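Contributing new records

If you add data, match the layout below exactly. Sequence lines come first and carry their own label; structure lines follow with theirs. Keep one chain per record. Anything else will be rejected by the validation script.
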Amino acid sequence: MQHAATIDAYADPEAPTRSPRGIEYEAIARITARLRAATEAVRGKDDTGGFARLAAALHDNRRLWTALAADVADPGNGLPQELRARIFWLAEFTGRHSGRVIAEGADPAPLIEINTAILRGLRGEAGSP
């Protein structure tokens, strides 16, 4: 994706220099790990701020997907149009579903699954979106 600098804000500033794809992978992996941990804390009825951790992870995940959506909406983006449309749709779904997780207690698992599929795609694994 073209605007790795936008996503770079989510990456570790002390990490070695990486390719744009590597930066995207690291940002998505870090947020996905936070979503997983917070989801497990909430499911385990963790009384040490599990829901607050989940809300913060959902917020950061939403911000990440907003940056991805802006990137694929850019006419200069080099990805195939169909892939750009899929990523944009996933960003919209992520925003809607995140709201449902917060407001209605919906399961955050689909968000984790989406991020995991994107990570597989960034690694070049078969079966990715």
